[in-house]
Amino acid sequence: MSGVLVLDRAQTRAALDPHRVMDAVAQALIAVSRGEASAPPRVAALAPGGLLGVMPGYVPGLGLAAKLVSVFADPAQAGRSSHRGIVALFDPEDGHPLALLDAESLTGIRTAAAATHSALALAAPRPGRIAVLGAGAQARAQLALLALLDPTTPVSVAGRDPRRVRSAAGLHPAAEAAPNAEAAVRGAAVVFCCTGAVQPVIRRDWLAPGVHVSSVGGSHGPEVDADTVRDALLFTEWPGAHAAAPPAGAYELQDLPAEKPVVLLGSVLSGTHPGRRNETGPTLFKSTGHAALDVAAAHVAHAVAVREGWGTVVDL
């Protein structure tokens, strides 16, 4: 195909086959853990109303891509922000552009896929209820993926807006709206934090023994409390999650004690690290987002769109 394939939001979403994205994201996380992926720390230009982040990356076998994403406060909804942008996929052999895709759709499912992999790999080996905190785009992406992969496990959904919480819960056949975050979290075996919080949305004393927490929000501040970070085994996508300052690194993982280990999730997925050590201590996957995951999802969307004949080819 000559030219650049452009997929609009609906076409990007349709091309992001969830099972293939799960497989590609696992491949990307393992590549990161082995030092095989090339992706510099995210940088951002600051504007009065928000920021524009830049995330280029290369993953062997998946490709070369870059994401431009804006994170701006939503004037219509106090305390919420929008994440909009584009992902450009390039040929890794000669560098010519292959495709332009909607970043919001792509980011939602690749982030949910990484969070789900963390739960599958690190949750204690016993069944239990799931909690999802948040009712925005990322929480909805997480609920949709859980509904596809595990439609029977009970899910409690909590957020600030009861109407939005009920709408999000409707995406999963076994989900119910909880009255608040504490009610959702207490007794849950897995907690997905998918919020735009600037302050922690969970507390250590809410967490059940052996809980796994997956935190993918917190672009503007800590989503997880310091006591949970202190007590949990910590897992991330890449070393910069704790070694780099925000916006590349996580707010929660700054200034960790030197003796506090942080393990790459890909090393657990590849079998080189055992992951959870016991059934009673908490585990925490703190996601900052990583360009390798964008590459993985863009690879899937491009392959599916080409196969199905979707999108518009333009000369760029």
From TrEMBL:
Top-rank taxon of the source lineage equals: Bacteria
Q: Which InterPro entries has this protein been placed in?
A: NAD(P)-bd_dom_sf, ODC_Mu_crystall, ODC_N
State the name under which the record lists this protein: Ornithine cyclodeaminase family protein
